[in-house]
Design brief:
Order of helices and strands: HEHEHEHHHEH
Number of helices: 7
Structural class: alpha/beta
Strand order of the largest sheet: 1-2-3-4
Helix content: 40-55%
Largest sheet: 4 strands, parallel
Shape: globular
């Protein structure tokens, strides 16, 4: 239905692929049904939507595409094989599209949030885990949705005219502070 709706719109300047689901299950316990569901939402949907929208952007020789990924696209952990695979894939998709669409003045970037104060974070992590991660973030706080929104607004605006193929990690310095 969404793809049919997109085909009826004349011009689209900005696309933000932001839907995702997440499971915390080790690979050996994850059902194929859950795996397929996660991949359909996290990777296949952005592929299909971007395919339809980019045709509009190519026609008008302008566009900004932002894929919301995750710090788990950079460094994973146990129980995140499917989720990390989908986000690694979305970063690869971003980088490839940035090359394919550059000649049409379409910039494609990813934004990878770290630990952000959201309902999903509260559902996925226990209170003591949230406190532990907060202590590991050099800025000593979880990110806010506004931190992510500001970066997305910049990347999708005309202030950005030369950044493409980049995965902007917004994590308060978390990844840079953890040891292997």
């Amino acid at each position: 239905k969404l793809i049919n709706y997109i085909t009826k719109i004349n011009k689209i300047d900005i696309l933000i692929n932001n839907a995702a689901i997440n499971y915390s299950e080790k690979n050996e316990n994850l059902s194929v049904k859950k795996y397929d569901q996660l991949m359909n939402v996290n990777l296949k949907a952005p592929f299909l939507i971007t395919q339809a929208v980019s045709k509009k952007m190519i026609k008008h020789r302008y566009g900004r595409i932002i894929n919301i990924c995750s710090i788990l696209s950079e460094k994973s952990k146990s129980g995140k094989s499917a989720y990390s695979s989908s986000k690694f894939g979305l970063v690869g998709f971003t980088k490839t599209l940035s090359i394919e669409l550059a000649k049409y003045n379409i910039l494609v970037n990813a934004v990878s949030p770290g630990f952000i104060e959201t309902e999903m974070t509260k559902l996925m992590l226990k209170k003591n885990e949230i406190m532990s991660f907060t202590k590991q973030v050099p800025l000593k706080r979880l990110g806010k949705t506004e931190d992510i929104a500001s970066a997305v607004i910049f990347l999708s605006s005309d202030l950005n005219c030369f950044i493409t193929g980049h995965n902007l990690i917004i994590d308060g310095g978390f990844l840079g502070s953890i040891s292997a």
